[in-house]
Amino acid sequence: MTTATTDSRKHHNRAVLGVLLMLGGLALYALSDAFIKQLMGSYSVKQTTFLRAFTRLIPLLFAVFMNGGVKQIFSTQHPMRHCARLAVNLAYTYSFMFAYSKATLTTVYTLGYTSSLFMIVLSALMLKEKVSKEKWFAVAIGMVGVLIAIRPGVGVFEMAAIIVLMGAFLGSLNKILMRRLAATEHSLAIAIYPNIAMILVTFPFLINNWQPISWHDWGFFAIVGVITSLGQFAIAHSLRFAQGSTLAPIDYSTFFWVFLLDFFWWDKMPDKFTVIGAAVIVASNLYILYRSRQEQAAKQLPA
Questions:
Q1: Whether the predicted pLDDT of 47 surpasses 90
Q2: Is residue 46 a contact partner of residue 206, using CB atoms and an 8 Å limit?
Q3: CA-to-CA separations, 85 to 75, 198, 301, in angstroms, rounded
Q4: Enclosing H/E stretch for 169
Q5: How many whole angstroms from its chain centre is CA 108?
Q6: Per-residue confidence band for 274, with pLDDT thresholds at 50, 70 and 90
Q7: Among candidates 75, 60, 117, which has minimal Cα distance to 245?
Q8: Which end of the chain is less enclosed by CB atoms within 10 A, N or C?
Q9: How confident is the model at residue 6 (pLDDT cuts 50, 70, 90)?
């Protein structure tokens, strides 16, 4: 492996770029989830998950040949780390896919925001990142904003809610494992392997349970493939430029994308509590970014 390639895979302390990549990736994921939820009205969770992985693998494989070929992209120093991350990713993906078939996007995303808390804890324990009390406080305020906006009631505490909470924990662990891999592995490899694993694991269950797909729905699956592959690559790349504790609160941004989708796709307007909660969430995210930049600037000052 060349020095240039190794240098390109090092962690770079460029929090703003990491945050922007994470924001873009999460926005694409929210859009793909809206398509997926609609398609689940006609197809099983297994078939939808399989086709989601298959269609987004195609543009990713095309990108491999545009970025140096198979040998350069898939060369790895840590195959066991990839295997551990793939197992976590499979469980995480199926948790959320099942939840989408049983609950509203709002419920799934609301409970999914608990991943920020899991991410902070895992970043401190596994990556040995120092998390300031100001960041802990800002994350807590962000969660208060989510509660204000959603005002969860008794109805959310169902089996789907438990599955989402488990998925939120696994999603946070998945990001931690991705960040470890980002130090030495190519971002495309990190994005591609989970899709291959999903296809291989799911296909045997569909041999006798495949439902024919219309050309119209093939088009929707193709759109999902493109936007999720772009989102997956952006998120994998964001972890190269910013710490997990910095990126964790950015998960809250999906709240805005979901409500934009509700308005433009399903003609639903957010109420005043949503607007107030959104303002609190934005404020907490901006404060965490501000604190991260302050901490980074302090490290660069001469002793």
A1: yes
A2: yes
A3: 16, 12, 37
A4: helix 159-182
A5: 13
A6: low
A7: 117
A8: C
A9: very low
* All residues at 6 or more sequence positions from 178 whose CB lies less than 8 Å from its CB, including other chains: 85, 190, 235, 236, 239
Q: Are the C-beta atoms of residues 75 and 167 closer than 8 Å to each other?
A: no
Residue linked to tokens 């008794």: 154
250 close to 116: Cβ distance less than 8 angstroms: no
Q: Letter for the amino acid at 201?
A: V
Q: Could you state, in order of their start, the residue ranges of all structural domains in the chain?
A: 12-297
Say how many C-beta atoms besides its own lie within 10 A of residue 61's C-beta.
Answer: 16
The dihedral through the CA atoms of 222, 223, 228, 231 has a sign that is: positive
Tell me the one-letter amino acid at 271. D
d(CA 79, CA 90): 17
Q: What is the pLDDT of residue 137?
A: 86
Q: What is the DSSP letter of 158?
A: S
Could you tell me the two tokens for 52? 């989601």
SS3 240: coil
In the predicted model, what is the mean pLDDT of the chain? 79
75 class by beta-carbon count within 10 Å (0-12 exposed, 13-18 middle, 19+ buried): middle
Tokens standing for 117?
Answer: 């808390």
